[in-house]
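FW: tagging you since you asked about this chain on Friday. Here's the raw sequence from the shared folder, copied in full. Didn't touch anything.
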Amino acid sequence: MIRNAVITDQTEVAVLLYNALHEIAEKLTGGNTHEEVLAGLRHWFSQPGNRLSYENCLIAEQDGRPVGVIVLYHGNEANRLDAPIVTYLRKLHGDASIILEKEADDDEYYIDTLSVHPDYSGKGIGSALIQKAEEQCQMLGYHKIAILADMSNTRALSLYKHRGYIHDYTITLVGEPFAHLSKTFMT
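HL: got it, structure written out here
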């Protein structure tokens, strides 16, 4: 079953987000240890108005618990959604120059993160979450959806290409190359 996320999903979703985001999760939370990063992810997930908020998440639920998550927002909302995180990180590090790289283009519905628990991998949950994201994109009247994938993650790249996503360009995040893949819907 795919459903909207709720605040009480925070414990399971924090683990899923960390599994997908790795160094990006450390950067977003300012955490140095595994537990600090998980605590930061739980915090941001439970707060409205930021990129990792439950408001922007769909959950795949099986056996009564979240086993997959997809984080979605429109690219033109990225700066607003990143603002509370940037403010926090600047204060935490005492560095007013901290910024977050813009991942989403202004003309796209953006899949920020997709993660499936390893015990449920290969069971179509990621595909189901992407399908639901594409349906939501079209329902909201958007014509383009996009995602970034680590260039070394051949399994993810294959999944997105199989679903009709095109590799438009490559960007660098946390020093690593990521493929920007997009799919356009006819009006």
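FW: The chain has one domain: 2-184.
HL: agreed, and The helical segments are 10-21, 23-29, 34-46, 78-93, 125-139, 154-162.
FW: great, closing this out.
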